[in-house]
Amino acid sequence: xxxxxxxxxxxxxxxxxxxxxxxxxxxxxxxxxxxxxxxxxxxxxxxxxxxxxxxxxxxxxxxxxxxxxxxxxxxxxxxxxxxxxxxxxxxxxxxxxxxxxxxxxxxxxxxxxxxxxxxxxxxxxxxxxxxxxxxxxxxxxxxxxxxxxxxxxxxxxxxxxxxxxxxxxxxxxxxxxxxxxxxxxxxxxxxxxxxxxxxxxxxxxxxxxxxxxxxxxxxxxxxxxxxxxxxxxxxxxxxxxxxxxxxxxxxxxxxxxxxxxxxxxxxxxxxxxxxxxxxxxxxxxxxxx
Length: 289
Hints:
Elements: E1 9-13, E2 20-21, H1 23-37, H2 50-57, H3 67-81, H4 93-107, H5 117-127, H6 132-149, H7 151-156, E3 159-160, H8 164-173, E4 177-181, H9 186-196, E5 205-206, H10 213-220, H11 224-227, E6 230-235, H12 238-245, E7 254-258, H13 265-272, E8 277-280
Parallel strand pairs: 1-4, 1-6, 4-5, 6-7, 7-8
Antiparallel strand pairs: 2-3
Helix pairs in contact: 1-3, 1-6, 2-3, 3-4
């Protein structure tokens, strides 16, 4: 679809999983905080398989604080199975029960232990909502200590996905209005956008403090017909896009599920059958709009 040159195209991008691969930084920041909550599980150093396991579990995460729980799950998986393969059927019921008892220490809930990985993770994350403040505080403190100790090293734990930098520069040259809508704090977004040299203004960065993404999108595009020729939103979580489709005031948005980053194959397959959501490949980013 060609754009009307008298009105710019509006593109809203998620950050983690669309623009930036931050799994490594999140793993080290969250693991450090997790060791303080569950020291009995982290008495030894980092096992080389923990990060690969965390990367696979990362697909199920929506908020950063949940990473502490994923670090615990991954740690128990690696110690019990000695492998990065996410086959929980190889674990004993004793090991699975250990996950539940550890989580109950901070959440005071009766955690369920399904066999399927997706159900196990989603149930576990649901059950720790009661401890979200503790987890958030732990992650925030750990990350602040990381940044204070070596800011450059913290930045270097992040990397842009291929094609993203050139795509954003191209859209900027075309005069598109670019915004980032993320569950990461705005302060961290500003730091990383500056680090990567992305031409996105500070006032166009929307973080955790700004509330749910669909509410931010409604505010930004409330008078879209007067301001933009096209309005586009790229996100790597299908659940977020599905919430957007349920909002009548966002029916004008062109919705894309990013097929890279942390998206699961299950969600990609589901999105391909959705009438309001398109899937997007990374190598399309420099020429699709």
